[in-house]
Known about the structure:
Blueprint lengths: L8 H21 L6 H8 L3 H7 L3 H18 L10 H17 L7 H9 L4 H27 L9 H22 L3 H15 L4
Helix pairs in contact: 1-2, 1-4, 4-7, 5-9, 6-7, 7-8, 8-9
Amino acid sequence: MPVTEPVTDKGRATRNRVLDAAAALVFEHGVAGTSLDDVRAAANVSKGQLYHYFADKEDLVHAVIDRTVQQVLDAQPRLIDLSSWAAIAAWFDDLVQLQIDRDAIGGCPIGSLAGELAETDDQARKELAAGFDRWEAPIREGLRQMQADGKVRRGADPARLATAILAAIQGGLVLTQTRRDPQQLRIALDAAYTYLRSFAA
C-alpha cells in the first residue's frame, strides 16, 4: 500500500500519474529495467512526491500490478457479457485485433510480470494470481449463464473451461510476441473456440 493515500484531487492525480508512468515503463522495460528515477522523470514528479505515496520500488511495483491488471481488463469491454457464442467469438476477434494494433509487441502485461516476479516475490505472485482470477471471473460467469440458458451442456465445468480459455490466450500471446505474428493468437483462440463448442448443448 502507498505510504499516504491521497485525500485531494490533486494528490490522486499525482499518484495516478506516477502509477501510469511506472506501468508504461515496466511494460516496455520490465521491472528490473525500470528505476525509480526513470519513473520520477516520466511522471514529472519530485523525489519527495514519489516517496510521499510509495515507500520504495517494491511498494510501487505492487501498485503497478493492480494498475496493470485493471488496464488489461479495461481493454476488453466485451468481458461485461460473454453469455453467447457470438459474444465469445467477438471477444476473441477483439483480442487478435489488439495485437494487430500493437504490432504484436509486448505480449500480455500480466503474464510478463508473472514471468519476472512469480519466483522472486511471493506477494507479487499472489497478486498476479488474483489478477488472473479477475480475468477468469467474467468468462466463468458467461459460461454459467450459457449453461443456464441451455447453450452449454449441464455436465460442462465453466471454471475449467475458463481456465482453458485463459491458458490459450496466454500461450497465444507468448507466441505472438516472440514471432511478432498476431495470427499465432488467432490459431490459439480458434482452437479454444472449437474446444468450447464441443460442450455446446
